[in-house]
């Protein structure tokens, strides 16, 4: 049968089968598995049916634990059920996995295997998560490529029904889950043919039904539990043969034969590598190469890892094998070896002990680790492993792919060992996220994959910064199936879609001699040569490149494409790469444009067509002769940076992090604070320039700046002596500044992302020309050098003494130094201004517990991190534990600090005589309510420490260790709504109920932002989000109301864009309140589909419409007989739709489901009105009697 | 008494036609207007901007930040189909056609000869009985001269007339150097009617924020004088029918418009203020007046006060201006 060739990624391949074979799908988003759930949801919204003709019920849960519970329940009630997850998500499913397996329930969990969070989180791929489920009783079955993902998904669904063993079907996160590959799609008939309805019926017969009641899940005693556990053995014994039978059956249907252990290589191989996952493909490719060199090598791919079949394993290996290297893509510290290695060793040992070894003699086995967190696994590394086996005594417990200069586990490998042949066309593209490069490349792969006989593969490397993020696309095309599961090592074509990336990356490092280089450049073909850096010119000349330029942005401008050069660059690629005849390529591009954009209207299609047509007229080949440039690329980081930054972090910034040695990494995940300041990203095309003549010194610009790149200082004029000539200042105005001080607003133009929030929020207008404000956007490049000097000078000016700053007014408060700066958050981020405010107000005494999510990524993703410290060396101490446990994590910090403070008090009381009563009393009775109080206490503690050093007692030594705890410490628990409303809500609730003095900041974007816009319980009614494609039908959870119900929790709802002063007050009150505080902060977000420059305005509309009422609930007021609730915003004054339809998340519903949109808008408006009345009544309640009662 | 009138070949039971406005947003309201006696309905305008920008905007925000960051390759679910405003508009026309018996006139608002013009065909296919073309252009560019602008108008009309068979009315602004000449050109270009005049939303300033703010005010009665004059002047000079719009609030206004030469009288502000039933009152007022003055039909009075028909044609020209100035009395 002719099957359709499609070009999809691994996630889609898995979901393709799982969806067709499920009735219920319960999921929770987690990278890299999220797309599987999202696709299922999209198919369900489009009423696509499974093979039994019904649309699966797709449900998003509050956590993976919840998803697993729902899966378990659904299975018990007789619906075929699946889920998709990875990493920590899989961990949360483990308790239910024991249950599901223990009850012999057929099910398949599809897992895009990912690293686990140990000393650091990583979203990338390895088998650490899957390996942690070995003990649950689930079968583990692995796919190595996108085609295999689809095939094995079907095999596992078939096998689970017959064997009753549930399976985890896994494949490598990103490398396979996100690799786009041409493959053969299974038909519904194929899928039907593999599923025996007899087993489906048996499964359904075992379901919980009142018509056939029984109980399952009893509690058992020492007498029988053990025997009960042993009942399942025969099912596990039978399972491998059942899986093999399914594989054989699959081969009959499709012609693709899989084995539980697939051997590839010389039949008489002496050296064999055993591994599973995508690395097996690279190994196979290398084996092919070595076989041609007459080497006796082979690779054994493990497909069914659990239940482990020794019988099949021993049969699969060639009889001639002498040495075996077992590669594990996981790390088990403290074990003798990693799991697969131990399994192999045990199998061989058992066979040897039983004299059942099928080999001439016991092979020598070594184990090694590779590929953690998607570390590249290349043919050079495979070869290094084979070379190791050549040794008389091969190195055991080795690593490959890194340089371990500490325990010397690593194998050396030859980076120049590259086996990419000429039969494959390889291309590299450097672009920005915003320019659409990846989308265009995915499109090109589809065109080549689906319209030609070529095989095609695409893999995309993204940035860990969310603003100005760069992308690198790795594409391969060729007549044979592609097994290269690693980045392109040598490219015949390189496209650089952004001129300034020439400075950032070594774009031409991997281009082959005579290759083609396409550059998007603002300069013409005649000007371009002289604009290139010297190194680039050298590479072009030395490698004799065919060099083409296009002014992509010029064409985009002309054709109304704005900043998206995707179609234009794609057209260039096809025009000069020769992958397809030009005319045919153009036709295909147009066809795919129609397909991609058709639903969004004819105009967008027409614009793209125009862009294609105009591209060819603007594409030029550049003639060159010799190197003429003297322009050397600037150093990665400044020479002033600390050594660790210069030596180690700089490598990561440069994209050469693979060369960081083990000795350069911290042993426990601890990194220095404040390293973003050294990574000058220069991503803004335009930056704000300050006009002192217009400025009214309100401080709002600095307050809203998401990246802390606008700073304010007031300082003695004497410091101006050394000011650079273009440094600007004005007289500091008003009583909040000391007399005669100068005032400067300085922009860090190299760190600014150009978001324009400051320009938008600036209330001062130029009287001659009202479009001008006190801050105006100007091109960055012309002022870069000058402002770099000004910024350095600005930094050298003294910070204002914190004791002199009036934190109650913004203009003065904004003089506080931000200790959260230049994060990788999106340009115009709505969350970071709040985070920065915490760092300004309390940073020098704060410990932060940060939930996983956007804030942990922009707050803690390497190479450089934004939490910093002041000149005294104090600053926020930050940590991220997990997603679900953040409230508890923060509470733990509080308990720990309180305990140590208590201990310090106990000790100081004991040592009162030695220390001196006066100092002790003043320390114990210190008032630390304000900066002055804290300052004085710090002085006293210094005095105490000096004193303690003179006292020779154990208690004095102990007190010295904990003396800092006399100074007030503030705990901030920070996270998003996914954490606070959903996965972490149970813990958050418990912490609120604890009465402990913690401050909880919920950065509420009303959607899962970090994982790409899935609905949370904070999502408002009528909003479109993933898993709410038809608009969320239910209202947003009122977290504030729930917290207020405790009565002793400080609760505030704030929106900086609507009322910045109220925000400031709330933060101050929350911190001052000696008990749990909860601030829910409206955070506009790219996931809202808004113009981010107008983010603060969006906040204002949210408040004015009543969607986001502002209030503070302060239990302190009760003491004075006052109502604790104070409404800080007025009754709704605009219609909800005036807020809603300013944002794509709401507006798109009027385009996708117009009738539903009307209905939900009406409900939403009613909800807002109702809620407002409720709050109003609460705020009007008379509490004066309560006071009397208390007094009486 | 015969109130019928012929407008662009459409037989209307009377001259009162609710003009392009929110009045036509709901099928129910249009039904009420029909029941109240409206003789046709001009559907609110589909704007060139909506056609051109909505699609781009939707694409921009749905793909914004997509494929930039490994954990979030996109931020929105992508439905298989979108009901964009233009499509919703066409559906609305079709629904109106099903719901009412009076002629439904589509309205297209734009200025260039771009891709949006094909929506004229779409509106025809959706079942509209005629199309009103609202050419809305502020000639702010000092490099563009009046010939260019006039040509632009004529080209749009020609192109649309070439593409569709239903009659086309052109709604104009009064800002032409030679209104009569422009009317003639549009007449020659094939316009089946001219609708005089369009009202522009004039911007206002917010003195607190120092911002320009859009401002919509309903028409007042005196605004009718300008179209009244031009209809009176153009009546009989061109083949195209004439419709008066702006400032019609009373039965007397309707009568005046017809007497000036209007084949149809368009009303919006008055109906927005007082509701569909106001049409019945206006019609009754017209009928009562005609009965009292013994007029037999609308056709009889049509153009009876046009420049050609009045005793003093110069009253419509400059002399009138001088006379008015001289007659103005100081009030303090």
TrEMBL record, chain A:
<feature type="binding site">
    <location>
        <position position="762"/>
    </location>
    <ligand>
        <name>[4Fe-4S] cluster 1</name>
    </ligand>
</feature>
<feature type="binding site">
    <location>
        <position position="826"/>
    </location>
    <ligand>
        <name>[4Fe-4S] cluster 3</name>
    </ligand>
</feature>
<dbReference type="GO" id="GO:0005506">
    <property type="term" value="F:iron ion binding"/>
</dbReference>
<protein>
    <submittedName>
        <fullName>Pyruvate:ferredoxin (Flavodoxin) oxidoreductase</fullName>
    </submittedName>
</protein>
<dbReference type="GO" id="GO:0044281">
    <property type="term" value="P:small molecule metabolic process"/>
</dbReference>
<feature type="site" description="Important for catalytic activity">
    <location>
        <position position="114"/>
    </location>
</feature>
<feature type="binding site">
    <location>
        <position position="829"/>
    </location>
    <ligand>
        <name>[4Fe-4S] cluster 3</name>
    </ligand>
</feature>
<dbReference type="Pfam" id="PF10371">
    <property type="entry name" value="EKR"/>
</dbReference>
<dbReference type="InterPro" id="IPR033412">
    <property type="entry name" value="PFOR_II"/>
</dbReference>
<feature type="binding site">
    <location>
        <begin position="1005"/>
        <end position="1010"/>
    </location>
    <ligand>
        <name>thiamine diphosphate</name>
    </ligand>
</feature>
<feature type="binding site">
    <location>
        <position position="64"/>
    </location>
    <ligand>
        <name>thiamine diphosphate</name>
    </ligand>
</feature>
<dbReference type="InterPro" id="IPR019752">
    <property type="entry name" value="Pyrv/ketoisovalerate_OxRed_cat"/>
</dbReference>
<feature type="binding site">
    <location>
        <position position="695"/>
    </location>
    <ligand>
        <name>[4Fe-4S] cluster 1</name>
    </ligand>
</feature>
<feature type="binding site">
    <location>
        <position position="698"/>
    </location>
    <ligand>
        <name>[4Fe-4S] cluster 1</name>
    </ligand>
</feature>
<feature type="binding site">
    <location>
        <position position="758"/>
    </location>
    <ligand>
        <name>[4Fe-4S] cluster 2</name>
    </ligand>
</feature>
<dbReference type="InterPro" id="IPR002869">
    <property type="entry name" value="Pyrv_flavodox_OxRed_cen"/>
</dbReference>
<feature type="binding site">
    <location>
        <position position="701"/>
    </location>
    <ligand>
        <name>[4Fe-4S] cluster 1</name>
    </ligand>
</feature>
<dbReference type="InterPro" id="IPR050722">
    <property type="entry name" value="Pyruvate:ferred/Flavod_OxRd"/>
</dbReference>
<keyword id="KW-0004">4Fe-4S</keyword>
<dbReference type="GO" id="GO:0016903">
    <property type="term" value="F:oxidoreductase activity, acting on the aldehyde or oxo group of donors"/>
</dbReference>
<feature type="domain" description="4Fe-4S ferredoxin-type">
    <location>
        <begin position="686"/>
        <end position="715"/>
    </location>
</feature>
<dbReference type="InterPro" id="IPR009014">
    <property type="entry name" value="Transketo_C/PFOR_II"/>
</dbReference>
TrEMBL record, chain B:
<keyword id="KW-0560">Oxidoreductase</keyword>
<dbReference type="InterPro" id="IPR005720">
    <property type="entry name" value="Dihydroorotate_DH_cat"/>
</dbReference>
<dbReference type="GO" id="GO:0005737">
    <property type="term" value="C:cytoplasm"/>
</dbReference>
<dbReference type="GO" id="GO:0004152">
    <property type="term" value="F:dihydroorotate dehydrogenase activity"/>
</dbReference>
<dbReference type="InterPro" id="IPR012135">
    <property type="entry name" value="Dihydroorotate_DH_1_2"/>
</dbReference>
<keyword id="KW-0665">Pyrimidine biosynthesis</keyword>
<keyword id="KW-0285">Flavoprotein</keyword>
<dbReference type="GO" id="GO:0006222">
    <property type="term" value="P:UMP biosynthetic process"/>
</dbReference>
<feature type="domain" description="Dihydroorotate dehydrogenase catalytic">
    <location>
        <begin position="3"/>
        <end position="290"/>
    </location>
</feature>
<dbReference type="GO" id="GO:0006207">
    <property type="term" value="P:'de novo' pyrimidine nucleobase biosynthetic process"/>
</dbReference>
<dbReference type="InterPro" id="IPR013785">
    <property type="entry name" value="Aldolase_TIM"/>
</dbReference>
<comment type="pathway">
    <text>Pyrimidine metabolism; UMP biosynthesis via de novo pathway.</text>
</comment>
<keyword id="KW-0288">FMN</keyword>
<protein>
    <submittedName>
        <fullName>Dihydroorotate dehydrogenase-like protein</fullName>
    </submittedName>
</protein>
<dbReference type="InterPro" id="IPR050074">
    <property type="entry name" value="DHO_dehydrogenase"/>
</dbReference>
<dbReference type="Pfam" id="PF01180">
    <property type="entry name" value="DHO_dh"/>
</dbReference>
């Amino acid at each position: 049968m002719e099957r359709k060739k499609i070009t999809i990624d691994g996630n889609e391949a898995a979901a393709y089968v799982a969806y067709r074979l499920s009735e219920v799908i319960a999921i929770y988003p987690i990278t890299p598995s999220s797309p599987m759930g999202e696709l299922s949801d999209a198919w369900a919204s489009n009423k696509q049916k499974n093979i039994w003709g019904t649309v699966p019920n797709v449900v998003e849960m509050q956590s993976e634990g919840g998803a697993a519970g729902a899966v378990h329940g659904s299975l018990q009630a007789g619906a075929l059920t699946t889920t998709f997850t990875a990493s920590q998500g899989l961990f949360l499913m483990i308790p239910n996995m024991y249950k599901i397996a223990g009850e012999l329930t057929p099910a398949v969990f599809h897992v895009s295997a990912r690293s686990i969070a140990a000393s650091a989180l990583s979203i990338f791929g390895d088998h650490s998560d899957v390996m942690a489920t070995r003990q649950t009783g689930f079968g583990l079955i692995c796919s190595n490529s996108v085609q295999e993902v689809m095939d094995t998904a079907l095999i596992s669904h078939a096998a689970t029904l017959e064997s009753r063993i549930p399976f985890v079907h896994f494949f490598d996160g990103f490398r396979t889950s996100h690799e786009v590959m041409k493959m053969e799609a299974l038909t519904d008939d194929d899928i039907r043919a593999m599923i025996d309805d007899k087993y489906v019926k048996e499964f359904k017969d075992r379901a919980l039904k009142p018509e056939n009641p029984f109980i399952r899940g009893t509690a058992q005693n020492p007498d029988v539990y053990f025997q009960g556990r042993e009942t399942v053995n025969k099912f596990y014994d039978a399972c491998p043969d059942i899986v093999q039978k399914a594989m054989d059956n699959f081969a009959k249907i499709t012609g693709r034969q899989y084995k539980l252990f697939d051997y590839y290589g010389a039949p008489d191989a002496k050296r064999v590598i055993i591994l599973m996952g995508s690395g097996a493909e690279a190994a196979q490719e290398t084996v092919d190469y070595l076989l041609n060199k007459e080497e006796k090598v082979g690779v054994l791919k493990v497909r069914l890892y659990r239940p482990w079949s020794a019988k099949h394993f021993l049969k699969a290996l060639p009889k001639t094998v002498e040495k075996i290297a077992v590669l594990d893509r996981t790390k088990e510290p403290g074990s003798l070896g990693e799991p697969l290695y131990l399994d192999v060793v045990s199998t061989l040992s058992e066979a040897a002990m039983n004299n059942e070894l099928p080999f001439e003699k016991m092979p020598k086995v070594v184990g090694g680790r590779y590929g953690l967190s998607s570390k590249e696994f290349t043919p050079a590394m495979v070869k290094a492993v084979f070379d190791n086996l050549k040794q008389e005594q091969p190195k055991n417990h080795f690593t490959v792919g890194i340089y371990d200069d500490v325990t010397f586990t690593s194998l050396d490998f030859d980076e120049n060992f590259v086996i990419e042949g000429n039969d494959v066309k390889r291309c590299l593209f450097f672009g920005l996220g915003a320019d659409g490069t990846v989308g265009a490349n995915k499109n090109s792969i589809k065109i080549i994959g689906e319209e030609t006989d070529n095989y095609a593969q695409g893999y995309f490397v993204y940035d860990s910064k969310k603003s100005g993020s760069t992308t690198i696309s790795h594409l391969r095309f060729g007549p044979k199936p592609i097994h290269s599961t690693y980045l392109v090592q040598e490219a015949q074509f390189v496209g650089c879609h952004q001129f300034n990336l020439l400075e950032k990356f070594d774009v031409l490092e991997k281009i082959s001699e005579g290759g083609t280089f396409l550059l998007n450049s603002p300069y013409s073909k005649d000007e371009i040569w002289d604009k290139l850096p010297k190194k680039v010119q050298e590479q072009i000349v030395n490698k004799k490149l065919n060099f083409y330029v296009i002014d992509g942005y010029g064409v985009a401008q002309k054709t109304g494409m704005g900043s998206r050069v995707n179609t234009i660059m794609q057209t260039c690629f096809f025009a000069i790469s020769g992958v397809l005849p030009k005319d045919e390529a153009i036709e295909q591009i147009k066809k795919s444009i129609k397909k991609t954009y058709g639903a969004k209207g004819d105009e967008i299609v027409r614009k793209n067509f125009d862009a294609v047509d105009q591209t060819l007229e603007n594409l030029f080949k550049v003639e060159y002769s010799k190197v003429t440039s003297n322009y050397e690329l600037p150093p990665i980081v400044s020479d002033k940076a600390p050594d660790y930054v210069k030596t180690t972090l700089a490598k990561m910034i440069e994209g050469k992090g693979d060369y960081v040695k083990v000795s350069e990494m911290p042993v426990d995940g601890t990194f220095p604070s404040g390293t973003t300041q050294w990574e000058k990203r220069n991503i803004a095309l335009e930056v704000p320039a300050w006009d002192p003549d217009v400025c009214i010194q309100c401080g709002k610009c600095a307050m809203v700046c998401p990246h802390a790149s606008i700073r304010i200082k007031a300082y003695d004029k004497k410091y101006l002596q050394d000011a650079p000539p273009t440094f600007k200042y004005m007289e500091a105005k008003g009583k909040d500044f000391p007399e005669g001080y100068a005032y400067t607003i300085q922009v860090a133009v190299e760190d600014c992302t150009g978001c324009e929030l400051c320009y938008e929020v600036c209330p001062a207008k130029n009287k001659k020309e009202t479009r001008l404000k006190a801050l105006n956007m100007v091109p960055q490049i012309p002022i870069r050098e000058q402002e770099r000097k000004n910024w350095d000078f600005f930094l050298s000016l003294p910070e204002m003494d914190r004791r002199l700053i009036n934190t109650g007014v913004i203009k003065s408060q904004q003089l506080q130094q931000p200790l959260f700066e230049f994060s990788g958050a999106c340009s115009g981020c709505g969350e970071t201004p709040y985070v920065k405010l915490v760092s300004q107000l309390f940073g020098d005494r704060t410990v932060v517990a940060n939930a996983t999510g956007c804030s942990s990524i922009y707050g803690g993703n390497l190479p450089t991190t934004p939490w910093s410290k002041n000149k005294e060396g104090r600053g926020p101490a930050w940590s991220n534990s997990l997603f679900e446990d953040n409230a508890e994590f923060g509470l733990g910090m509080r308990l720990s600090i309180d305990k140590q403070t208590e201990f310090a008090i106990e000790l100081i009381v004991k040592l009162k005589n030695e220390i001196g009563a006066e100092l002790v009393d003043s320390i114990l009775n210190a008032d630390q309510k304000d900066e002055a109080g804290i300052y004085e206490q710090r002085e006293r503690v210094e005095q105490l420490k000096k004193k303690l050093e003179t006292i020779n007692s154990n208690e004095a030594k102990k007190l010295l260790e904990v003396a800092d705890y006399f100074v007030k410490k503030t705990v901030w628990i920070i996270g998003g709504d996914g954490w606070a409303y959903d996965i972490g809500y149970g813990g958050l609730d418990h912490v609120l109920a604890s009465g402990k003095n913690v401050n909880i900041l919920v950065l509420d974007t009303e959607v899962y932002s970090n994982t790409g816009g899935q609905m949370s319980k904070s999502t408002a009614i009528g909003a479109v989000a993933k898993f709410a494609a038809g608009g969320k039908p239910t209202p947003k959870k009122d977290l504030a109301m729930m917290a207020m119900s405790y009565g002793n929790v400080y609760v505030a709802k704030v929106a900086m864009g609507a009322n910045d002063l109220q925000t400031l007050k709330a933060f101050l009150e929350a911190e001052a309140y000696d008990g749990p505080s909860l601030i829910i902060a409206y955070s506009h977000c790219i996931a809202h589909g808004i113009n981010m420059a107008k983010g603060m305005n969006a906040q204002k509309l949210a408040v004015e419409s009543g969607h986001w009422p502002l209030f503070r609930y302060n239990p302190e007021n009760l003491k004075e007989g006052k109502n604790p609730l104070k409404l800080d915003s007025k009754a709704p004054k605009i219609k909800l739709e005036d807020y809603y339809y300013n944002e794509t998340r709401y507006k798109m519903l009027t385009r996708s489901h117009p009738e539903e949109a009307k209905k939900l808008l009406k409900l939403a408006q009613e909800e807002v009105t109702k809620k407002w009345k409720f709050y109003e009544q609460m705020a009007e309640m008379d509490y004066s009697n309560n006071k009397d009662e208390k007094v009486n | 008494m015969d109130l019928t009138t012929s407008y662009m070949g459409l037989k209307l039971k009377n001259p009162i036609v609710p003009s392009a406005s929110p009045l036509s947003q709901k099928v129910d309201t249009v039904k009420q207007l029909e029941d109240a006696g409206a003789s046709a309905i001009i559907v609110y305008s589909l704007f060139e901007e909506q056609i051109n920008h909505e699609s781009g905007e939707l694409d921009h925000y749905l793909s914004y930040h997509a494929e930039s960051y490994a954990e979030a390759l996109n931020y929105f679910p992508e439905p298989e189909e979108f009901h964009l405003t233009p499509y919703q508009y066409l559906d609305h026309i079709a629904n109106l056609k099903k719901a009412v018996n009076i002629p439904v006139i589509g309205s297209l608002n734009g200025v260039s000869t771009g891709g949006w013009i094909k929506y004229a065909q779409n509106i025809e296919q959706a079942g509209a009985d005629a199309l009103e073309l609202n050419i809305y252009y502020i000639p702010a560019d000092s490099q563009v001269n009046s010939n260019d602008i006039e040509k632009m108008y004529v080209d749009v009309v020609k192109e649309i007339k070439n593409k569709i068979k239903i009659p086309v009315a052109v709604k104009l602004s009064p800002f032409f150097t030679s209104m009569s000449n422009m009317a003639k050109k549009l007449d020659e270009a094939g316009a089946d009617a001219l609708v005089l005049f369009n009202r522009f939303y004039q911007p206002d300033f917010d003195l607190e924020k120092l911002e320009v703010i859009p401002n919509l005010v309903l028409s007042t009665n005196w605004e009718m004088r300008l179209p009244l004059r031009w209809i009176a002047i153009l009546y009989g000079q061109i083949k195209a029918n004439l419709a008066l719009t702006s400032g019609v609030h009373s039965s007397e206004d309707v009568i005046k418009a017809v007497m000036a030469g209007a084949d149809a009288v368009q009303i919006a502000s008055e109906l927005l203020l007082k509701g569909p039933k106001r049409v019945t009152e206006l019609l009754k007022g017209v009928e009562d007046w005609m009965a009292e003055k013994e007029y037999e039909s609308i056709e009889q009075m049509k153009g009876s006060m046009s420049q050609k028909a009045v005793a003093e044609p110069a009253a419509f020209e400059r002399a009138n201006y001088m006379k008015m100035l001289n007659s103005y009395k100081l009030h303090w």
